[in-house]
Amino acid sequence: MAQTAARDAGAADMPATLTLDEQLAVFRRGRFLAMPIAGTIAWTLIGVAGAILPLVGAVWAIFIGTGFIFYLGLGVARVTGEDLLGKTRKGNLFDRIFLMGTIEAVLVYSIAIPFFLIEPTSLPLTVGILTGLMWIPFSGMLGHWVGLFHSFTRTALIVAAWYLVPDGRFVAIPAIIVLVYLATIAILAGRPWEAAERA
Predict the structure, then answer these.
(1) Other beta carbons less than 10 A from residue 90's beta carbon
(2) Rounded Cα gap, residues 116 and 124, in angstroms
(3) Domain containing 52: what range?
(4) 81 conformational bin, left if phi > 0, alpha if psi -120 to 50, beta if neither
(5) Contact 148, 180 (CB under 8 A)
(6) 61 vs 32: CA distance, rounded Å
(7) pLDDT at residue number 86
(8) What φ, ψ does residue 88 adopt, rounded to 5°?
(9) Element (H or E) spanning 198, and its range?
(10) What is the CA radius of gyration of the chain?
(11) Which of 53-57, 96-100, 155-159 has the lowest mean pLDDT?
(12) Number of domains the chain contains
């Protein structure tokens, strides 16, 4: 954590004339653990709610829980020593793209809500898949396969659970998302700093 803070502090002094390649190198030095940890916590609580609450409660748990992930991530970032908002790397294009991806995830509710109004149990499927799509561009920016792994594995398993566990969608799908998050966290935590810095 101290090592990350030192790097972030050094990045705060970076000149505004950094090339895109240099900005990308700075971006790739991030740990990127706060958001998946926050997602793990939120989807765990969503799954618990799905197991013990009636349908209305389970639905609200998804809406509230997924809407709270970013804010929870800000809190987790204080523990992990991450600069989730890029305050110490002002002007970094890739930080802005990362935040735009987070905002993009909010817009997917325009697809999820109409489908949900027709079929209430569709909500874990649509929200679970659509909010996981932001990992694809993140994988490209990071220069690492972890985001592709996250999105494709998450999507495939959620679709499988949709068909295989029709009566347990509000529990099985959150459980799958949590497992994929845990694998993602392990992969990100094991990503060599040296490799990230050379990229």
Answers:
(1) 12
(2) 9
(3) 2-198
(4) left
(5) no
(6) 25
(7) 65
(8) -90, 0
(9) helix 193-198
(10) 18
(11) 96-100
(12) 1
